[in-house]
Write a structure and sequence with these properties.
Layout (H helix, E strand, L loop, with lengths): L23 E12 L2 E12 L3 E5 L6 H9 L6 E6 L2 E2 L10 E4 L11 H11 L4 H14 L15 H13 L5 E5 L7 H18 L2 E6 L2 H7 L2 E6 L2 E6 L1 H6 L4 H6 L4 E11 L2 E6 L2 E6 L9 E6 L4 E4 L8 E10 L3 E8 L4 E7 L16 E6 L5 E3 L2
Parallel strand pairs: 3-8, 3-9, 6-7, 7-8
Antiparallel strand pairs: 1-2, 1-4, 4-5, 9-10, 11-12, 11-14, 12-13, 14-20, 15-19, 16-17, 16-19, 17-18
Helix pairs in contact: 2-3, 2-4, 3-4
């Protein structure tokens, strides 16, 4: 039997820095955007607070970039209202908004040096030359590019160009910085390194970031909170821990990370304790929802929450045979075929270097699977 809490019981989780929630910096109220008969953003509401690093996460075509462009003023909502620091942005053009945007391709001027790229917006605003020099020098130190200030973009690495684009966006001191897939052009290793650099810079300057990404790991690493989008709507909003450990439906559970999704039928619901029958047996899960007996729903079990071994133990839940293996160095992913021909995904850390092949689980091995009683997730739809 498995006893878990749903997302309604997860509000005590904290995995990010404290954010003041006295008053939202950004308020999105009933915002929709239509292109002809197609609804790209569908009546969304959201509050984002000063100092947050907020991620809009979703697949291609979910509406996240359209929403970001509306925040920047490049698109006008079909309906609804966007307020920044209490001011309605409906009639405010992009160049007068307290925002700046960092584009996916960085949009650096190839004929200008690093310092000239960064200074460009300040020069357009008519700031004094000495003030511009001071601001550029300060932001170059922040992004650690002082020694590259005389170089042109083509003389820089991808990570350095990314920092130039970030410096150019931050030097104007916006209240809200909008970032459209800011790390997409970087290779995997550099992207992982730059994620932490971006977080450190954001914390130092204190500017509120709104980041659009389709990369689940990136969103989980960067953000104080995440809004998962699909078909123009927010499916769930919360901290990375809330989104991952307490998804509110099947889509979120499957989109964020990986999950074994089990078809279930409610056997009973007594005082908030829901007993669900699945092909892995019965699960007992807590829920505040009014779920009636006989209802169909899903139970989620993440691959890394399942233990796998050749030897049996008192906690063994089920037996199967290894059908396929994916070796990733630090982890291995096993597809385990059960007696009922169902396949269960299991992820295991490779904590020890094997002495020989006998130390490693391999194809057709008989294995025992087990999981902790708090690992299952109740997914209502």
């Amino acid at each position: 039997m498995v006893n878990v809490k749903t997302s309604s019981g997860s509000d005590a989780l904290t995995d990010t820095k404290e954010i003041s929630k006295d008053k939202p910096l950004l308020e999105i109220r009933g915002v929709s955007k239509k292109f002809g008969d197609f609804t790209a953003v569908n009546n969304v509401d959201l509050d984002i607070y000063q100092g947050e690093l907020f991620c809009l996460l979703g697949g291609s075509g979910c509406g996240k970039t359209t929403l970001l462009r509306m925040l920047a003023g490049f698109e006008k909502p079909s309906s609804g209202q966007i307020l920044i620091d209490g001011q309605d942005m409906s009639e405010v053009p992009p160049y007068k908004r307290p925002t700046n945007m960092m584009f996916q391709n960085y949009a650096l001027f190839p004929h200008m040096t690093v310092e000239k790229n960064i200074a460009f917006g300040l020069e357009q605003d008519g700031l004094a030359k000495t003030e511009i020099l001071d601001k550029v020098d300060s932001i170059l130190k922040l992004v650690e590019l002082q020694e590259y200030k005389k170089r042109r973009p083509q003389q820089l690495s991808g990570g350095q160009r990314q920092r130039v684009a970030l410096a150019r966006a931050l030097v104007k001191e916006p209240k809200l910085l909008l970032l459209d897939e800011p790390l997409a052009a970087l290779d995997k290793k550099l992207r992982e390194q730059t994620q932490f650099e971006l977080m450190n810079i954001q914390e130092k300057v204190g500017v509120t970031f709104v980041v659009v990404t389709h990369d689940q790991e990136e969103a989980m690493t960067l953000s104080t909170r995440i809004a998962v989008m699909d078909k123009g709507r927010f499916i769930q909003t919360g901290t990375p821990t809330e989104i991952y450990e307490y998804p509110n439906d099947r889509f979120v559970a499957d989109f964020i990370g990986s999950a074994n999704i089990l078809d279930g039928k409610v056997v009973s619901n007594i005082d908030g304790m829901v007993e669900v029958s699945t092909y892995l047996g019965k699960f007992s899960l807590t829920s505040n929802s009014n779920i009636s007996k006989g209802s169909n729903l899903y139970v989620g079990l993440r691959p890394e929450k399942i233990s796998i071994s050749r030897t049996s133990s008192k906690s063994t839940n089920i037996t199967g045979y290894i059908d396929d293996i994916g070796y990733f160095g630090n982890t291995s992913r096993y597809k385990v075929r059960l007696d009922n021909d169902q396949i269960i995904d299991v992820t295991a850390q490779n904590q020890k270097r094997p002495k020989d092949e006998k130390d490693r689980l391999t194809y057709e091995d008989k294995v025992q699977l087990s999981w902790d009683n708090s690992s299952a997730m109740l997914l209502l739809k």
